[in-house]
Design a protein that fits this description.
alpha+beta, Triger factor/SurA peptide-binding fold, about 350 residues
Length: about 350
């Protein structure tokens, strides 16, 4: 891992994205990380909480955890297993709170009489299948992750009902006026200054956990051999796929775009100073030896209002709707009875306090 941002920082979602985490996973289908689930998931399925009598099961928490963080947790289990338990606990706390909020919305949607038609469910299933790798079926995809197709259908039904409720709650939220959008633009100039960035790929020969001088020398020799092959005309993407110790090997070593402050200092310095299209010399960091190829550079510049108006208008509109939904959820939390399974009954508290108490318990 090269990025300095933590797992939790990378996993932050806006309110609506948190509510519909499983739906987002459907939009970007990927096979759940089976190895990670073995590390973090017990086999029993107890009730964690009840929300107005509706149970939230351990399996619900595990499924959402794997949908959102399965790949990261699998990597951590391999690279930093000593940190896995702590991160897992933090992630579970976030997920439990999100499941409480989702349950409140689902119960409210069903109380309002919202339905998910079979036609709507089948349409969503077809859209998911269209985004799967060519030749893969939804049944095979679900089976590879150990998730019954009936579970996916149930999730779509629930999300459809909640979306109908959200549409009703936010029906009176209007598009922001141009003057309001321009005011936001003028008052937040830093948000519209496009920072300098590079797009780069790398091949990592990891030295993490190695203290023996002979082994370290062998790693250096391995990195030098890879660099020599590149100098002789070998394809960077092919060697990355074959030899890199970074998960980016699956994408030919590509790390995508990044700005200053996102990578460790030695890596950042080399990437920003390197010429586009050139393969640089070996770069040593705490992670090991890196061979970097910069594929694109973007200079910093200020974006004009006319260039961001449409996107900013849409963003402010979505923020206004999210705020309305947040207020609605807070109202539901204040009325809800949220109980931890097996815990003695406590004096009535606000919804948020009950969630926090249940998580700590």
């Amino acid at each position: 891992m090269i990025m300095k941002s933590s797992l939790l920082q990378r996993g932050l979602f806006a309110t609506l994205a948190l509510i519909f985490g499983a739906a987002n996973a459907q939009e970007q289908p990927s096979v759940p990380a089976q190895d990670a689930s073995k590390e973090i998931a017990p086999t029993e399925n107890p009730v964690i909480l009840t929300v107005d009598g509706t149970p939230i099961m351990a399996e619900d928490v595990r499924e959402m955890m794997m949908a959102r963080y399965g790949q990261q947790l699998a990597q951590m289990a391999q690279q930093a297993p000593e940190q896995l338990a702590m991160i897992q606990q933090q992630v579970q706390g976030v997920i439990i709170q999100d499941l409480v909020r989702k349950t409140l919305l689902l119960n409210a949607a069903e109380a309002e009489g919202f339905k998910a038609s079979e036609e709507a469910v089948n349409k969503s299933l077809a859209e998911i299948e269209d985004r799967l790798p060519e030749g893969s079926s939804l049944e095979e995809f679900a089976a590879s992750g150990g998730v019954p197709i009936t579970r996916i259908k149930k999730q779509i039904q629930e999300d459809t009902k909640i979306r109908q409720l959200v549409d009703q709650v936010t029906a009176d939220v209007g598009q922001p006026a141009k003057a309001e959008v321009k005011k936001y633009y003028d008052e937040n100039p830093d948000e519209f200054a496009k920072q300098e960035s590079v797009a780069a790929s790398h091949i990592l020969v990891s030295t993490q956990g190695i203290n023996d001088d002979t082994e370290l020398a062998a790693k250096l020799e391995s990195a030098q051999n890879i660099k020599k092959q590149l100098d002789e005309g070998a394809t960077f993407e092919e060697l990355a796929a074959q030899h890199s110790d970074c998960p980016s090997k699956q994408n030919g070593g590509s790390l995508g775009d990044f700005g200053r402050g996102q990578m460790v200092p030695e890596f950042e310095k080399a990437a920003f100073e390197q010429e586009v299209g050139k393969v640089g010399d070996l770069v040593k960091t705490d992670f090991g030896y890196h061979i970097i190829k910069v594929t694109q550079k973007q200079e910093s510049k200020e974006m004009a209002f006319v260039d961001v108006q449409k996107e900013l208008t849409s963003s402010l509109f979505e923020q206004a709707k999210a705020k309305k939904v947040e207020e609605y959820i807070t109202e539901l939390e204040g009325k809800a009875k949220i109980e931890q399974s097996g815990a003695p009954e406590a004096p009535k508290a606000s919804g948020k306090e009950e969630i926090d108490a249940a998580k700590k318990g």
